[in-house]
């Protein structure tokens, strides 16, 4: 059963990698490597059956793409504010704060939809363990990156 799960994750990886094959930017390549490691980590940690994996990964990938876009938009807005060396007006700061809160609320809304979609195929315990696996992967990633600068930032 585990071989089927690994095979399925390799197929997913191949599919997701092929959609980004034309992008040669090293940071994007680095992000894709991290995504594939995360897929393998979650697949291994959760030991999903082939049937559950076929239902799970499309939901997970859709959610991940939406969250990634939302976070990209948020950080883009924040970078714009940081680059602006002049003092902003009170109205401009308020507008920025409103957008920042919007991003937080939108992320929470997406998480609720994601959890609802997952609950149709996974038990509450499995969803909790999925969240735990995601946190564990982030910890592993941060621990591995301590003191290292990603190649795309050199």
How do the helices and strands line up, and which of them pair or pack?
Layout: H1 2-19, H2 26-46, H3 50-83, H4 90-119, H5 124-145
Helix pairs in contact: 1-2, 1-3, 2-5, 3-4
Question: Which features would summarize this protein structure in a list?
Answer:
154 residues, 5 helices, 81% helix
Task: Please sum up the structure shown.
This protein has 154 residues and is an all-alpha fold.
Write up what this structure looks like.
The protein is mainly α. It has one domain. It has 5 helices and no strands. The protein has helices at 2-19, 26-46, 50-83, 90-119, 124-145. Helix 2 (26-46) crosses helix 5 and helix 3 runs antiparallel to helix 4 (90-119).
What is the general shape?
globular
Q: On the 0-100 scale, what is the average pLDDT? A: 78
- The counted number of beta strands is 0
Largest sheet entry: none
Task: Work out the radius of gyration.
Answer: 18 Å
**Low-confidence regions:** 5-24
Distance between the termini: 42 Å
Number of structural units classed as domains: 1
Computed structural class: mainly alpha
Strand content: under 5%
Percentage of helical residues?
over 70%
Number of helices: 5
Order of helices and strands, N to C?
HHHHH
